[in-house]
Specification:
Length: 426
């Protein structure tokens, strides 16, 4: 029993470390567009998001139940070593994609890790295939598409309703709306992603016969998971914030408001019915929808393509790492210790690599280079020319050229009037 108690303690600590990485990995979901448009300063934005993530952790336990008693069959001989190996796979994949600045899914990294470790240690009997299809794979495909289409429609409607007013008149109101919608996304993130760590810890307690099967997470589990994800959120995943805010498309306040509102709606609806979907995929889909929805906007499809590749690889990659960790952890105490040491060394190496080109709140809105206008963007521009007087009406390639040279992009308040624009282009 002492061995099991010690091992469960290790699993709980590892789960909270994953929750911490989930927090800074997913800060961009709520705050990337708010920071990129200047609606809130970077530090204020992540602080507000951290508080609301903590609050959201107390609002629901439906997703936690999906994790603790849905994806993995807790009665099929799942041991704490299996959960530990699954968490190691999820943490390492989170850090790899963070280093690359790719907003991949922390949720799917966790699912992949648990599934991979279970398949190696227990076999197919330990995995609930129906639950994976219905509550993981289908939402993974549908949620970003739904969020993207809804945001595209909302963005076009927003610009149409404000077409009679200058951007300077509407920017302030939209930025206030962005703050409110970003707060809603942060709250929704707490109701969904914080629950996943609660579910993992509860699963570990069930495997150690500490709590009964099908139990709700104890209060101390809810508090610790909420605090861990809030702390990670406050530290800010600046690399991914840069990608979400500047790397996919150049977000203006109306787009940011539409993207965050659409994403929050999808996340809250899924939390209510217990779908453990990826908030990262939802928010990324919403940002792409916002880019398509604004006439003349440049959507950087190569960046979007890299994101989709990361989404597809997340489940198998995390599962592969977790499977290897499970093989080692199954060798006993020495195996568990070896997995822990290797995981710490790998995390340290990733952190050292990140210090070569650090990204923080002081340079998060700087983009060193952008992709040139591609065939898809050029085709969209040809049928949907930008409205006069907006930043998108600059000569083709000007935005990309400015970004490539390091020139700061104009904010909505600095957008030239039609007369000024014509004088600068002569």
């Amino acid at each position: 029993m002492e061995h099991i108690t010690l091992l469960i303690g290790i699993v709980i600590v590892t789960a909270l470390v994953f929750d911490f990485t989930n927090g800074f990995h997913d800060t961009a979901n709520a705050m990337a567009t708010t920071i990129s448009t200047g609606a809130l300063g970077p530090r204020v934005a992540v602080a507000m998001s951290a508080v609301l993530n903590l609050v959201g952790a107390f609002l629901s336990v439906e997703v936690a139940k999906t994790i603790s008693g849905g994806i993995i069959d807790e009665g099929a001989g799942i041991r704490p070593e299996v959960i530990f190996a699954g968490l190691v796979g999820a943490i390492l994949w989170n850090l790899v994609t963070w280093l690359a600045g790719l907003p991949s899914s922390s949720s799917h990294a966790l699912f992949g890790g648990l599934i991979g470790a279970t398949l190696v240690s227990v076999g197919l009997d330990g995995v609930n295939g129906d639950a994976i299809v219905m509550k993981v794979l289908i939402p993974a495909v549908a949620a970003p598409i739904v969020a993207g289409i809804a945001t595209m429609v909302a963005t076009r409607l927003t610009y149409r309703l404000g077409s009679g007013r200058s951007p300077e008149d509407t920017a302030k109101g939209y930025r206030a709306g962005q703050i409110a919608s970003a707060a809603l996304v942060s709250l929704a993130h707490g109701t969904n992603d914080a629950q996943k760590t609660m579910g993992v810890i509860t699963l570990a307690l069930v495997t150690g016969n500490v709590v009964a099967p099908d139990s709700d997470p104890p209060l101390w589990v809810i508090v610790s998971a909420g605090l861990a994800i809030a702390l990670g959120t406050y530290l800010g995943g600046w690399r991914i914030i840069r990608t979400m805010g500047k790397g996919i498309t150049d977000i203006q306040p109306p787009q940011g408001f539409a993207a965050q509102t659409g994403a929050a709606t999808v996340i809250l609806a899924s939390s209510h019915i217990g779908f453990a979907l990826s908030t990262t995929q939802v928010c990324s889909g919403a940002v792409m929808g916002a880019g398509v929805g604004r006439k003349g906007a440049v959507v950087r499809w190569s960046t979007a393509g890299r994101m989709v590749v990361a989404w597809v690889l997340t489940l198998p990659a995390a599962g592969l790492v977790a499977g290897g960790a499970a093989l080692l952890a199954d060798q006993g105490n020495a195996g568990v210790a070896a997995v822990a040491v290797l995981a710490i060394l790998a995390c340290g190496a990733i952190w050292a690599l990140s210090r070569r080109k650090p990204v923080d709140h002081t340079n998060v809105n700087e983009v060193a280079a952008q992709e040139p206008v591609g065939a898809v963007t050029a085709a969209l521009r040809s049928v949907a020319p930008p409205p006069a007087g907006t930043a998108a009406s600059a000569p083709e390639g000007a935005v990309e050229a400015a970004a490539a040279s390091g020139t700061p992009e104009s904010t909505p308040e600095q957008t030239p009037t039609p007369a000024a624009a014509s004088s600068t282009t002569r």
